[in-house]
Amino acid sequence: MNTCSYRDLREKVINGGYCIGCGACVSQSNSVGSNVLNARGMYEPDFASSESEINNVCPFFSDRSETEIAKTIFAATKGIRENEFIGFYLSTYAGYVAEDSFREGGSSGGFGTWVLSRFLSENLVDGVIHVKPSSGKGVLFEYGISNSIEDLKKGAKSRYYPVEFSGVLREVRKSQKKYAFVGVPCFVKAARLLCENDDEIADRILFFVGLVCGHLKSKRFADMLAWQKGIKPDELRAIDFRQKFSSGPASNYGIEIRGEKDRKAEILAERASSFYGYNWGYGFFKPRACDFCDDVVSETADVSIGDAWLPEYVDDSKGTNVVVVRNPVIQELVDSGIKSGALRLDSIPPEKIIESQEGGFRHRRDLLAYRLVLAEEQGEWYPRKRVEPKKDGIDERYKKITVLRMQLAEKSHSAFEKALKADDFEVFKTEMKPLLLEYDRLYRKSFASRVLSKAKRVLKKRKIRKIRDRLHFLV
Ligand SMILES: Cc1cc2nc3c(=O)[nH]c(=O)nc-3n(C[C@H](O)[C@H](O)[C@H](O)COP(=O)(O)OP(=O)(O)OC[C@H]3O[C@@H](n4cnc5c(N)ncnc54)[C@H](O)[C@@H]3O)c2cc1C
Ligand code: SF4
Ligand code: SF4
């Protein structure tokens, strides 16, 4: 068994800011540790003694990369292929669920809840471990178990919110039942590492469903969205980060907030774009761990599910999934779903999946290489990555954007604490303003340059050389 000391985990991972709060390290059967929310609104493990010896199942401390883990699970699967960016795959799709209300109730095309419901209805598992509205412990969402399709549906939708799974795994150990587990890529990796080290958990969890992931948010993200609309953090009761509207592109979804304003119940729903600080590029309240992560699509999951951020699909406000299947049992469910008309899925090449997450791959592959250089220059320890440190060949503007993004994330945590102390949301905005102005100025420039580069590539394909030459000097 691969073990490490809590002292090492604390010094390198937790103090270095690389802890995502998953709870894997406090999930061993005889664990003396606990996982609690810290001042930033992220989970963080704590052990009474720094000498505690723990299983090295940390996604940011284990030597096992996503590729190595995936190889032991999928490499021998008949018909499996491998891609540098999405890992192993049997098939890749874009589409949605046509039956029942899965699509309406989901964040994207509803495939997530559909495939989990098929596990239950086919008796492949007894329960699903996923994230649901919390039963009230000072947090809005938590990992829980659903044993029926009705329960499962109540837990649909993406939660941009801190969660951890050590509590739910305690329940899982108590029963002899079989489960499917849902998580973002680093959580799936952590759960897979747990299974490699822990026969009890390996016996219980049979399927892993991975969500494509841009980055996670601390609890403060939900607080910020509510507070700017007049609902203070301790008066926020519920939030739907992905409300669908009947028109407009799927990417311009809404946010619904429930809470209290001047002691009266308040419900508001507005387009995400109308909220200050929602722009994912700013990375407000992003844990540092997410800047040192290279798994965009959950490469260790049996099936990965994301949003089809592709021009062919994004205009449909009802939402469309991208799906990567790696497990033959899930492939059978998908095949029969397509045949019966329950699923409307188009077979697409892996390149289209990559295109749908273009920004995510740029940030977590090309620009991660640069962040590793920055960490090395500072003499900092950083987790083992599948990307080599590199600064050559990276556009100077992008280098500046990378640094600014890290500063924006870091500043958002401290600025929000300051605003809370002052009991004034405007303090947060004032603190963020200088960095935001600089970021917006730089980003606008590089965005314009990207649009022109893309236009040039299209024109090149069409061999319209004259026009391309005229555009050349503009970039
Ligand atoms: C933090 C985060 C970041 C994401 N970033 C991207 C991205 O950059 N690009 C992209 O294409 N897609 C991203 N997604 C995935 C996307 O938002 C949808 O979740 C996905 O497309 C599935 O939609 P659906 O309609 O098929 O699933 P649904 O039917 O809505 O089911 C979603 C399932 O996921 C579970 N779940 C929700 N939130 C969490 C969570 N935090 N941890 C574990 N389980 C959870 C729910 O309990 C439910 O079972 C992200 C999701 C999260 C949670
Ligand atoms: S990332 Fe997970 S396993 Fe690693 S230290 Fe944090 S809670 Fe523990
Ligand atoms: S970006 Fe990576 S580290 Fe951050 S939550 Fe997503 S999978 Fe985990």
UniProtKB/TrEMBL annotation:
It comes from the Bacteria. Residues 177-349 form the Coenzyme F420 hydrogenase/dehydrogenase beta subunit C-terminal domain. It holds the Pfam family FrhB_FdhB_N. It comes from Mesotoga infera. Coiled coil: none annotated. One of its GO terms (molecular function) is oxidoreductase activity, acting on CH or CH2 groups, with an iron-sulfur protein as acceptor. This is Coenzyme F420-reducing hydrogenase, beta subunit. PANTHER family: 7-HYDROXYMETHYL CHLOROPHYLL A REDUCTASE, CHLOROPLASTIC. Residues 92-169 form the Coenzyme F420 hydrogenase/dehydrogenase beta subunit N-terminal domain. InterPro entries: Co_F420_Hydgase/DH_bsu_N, FRHB/FDHB/HCAR-like, FrhB_FdhB_C.
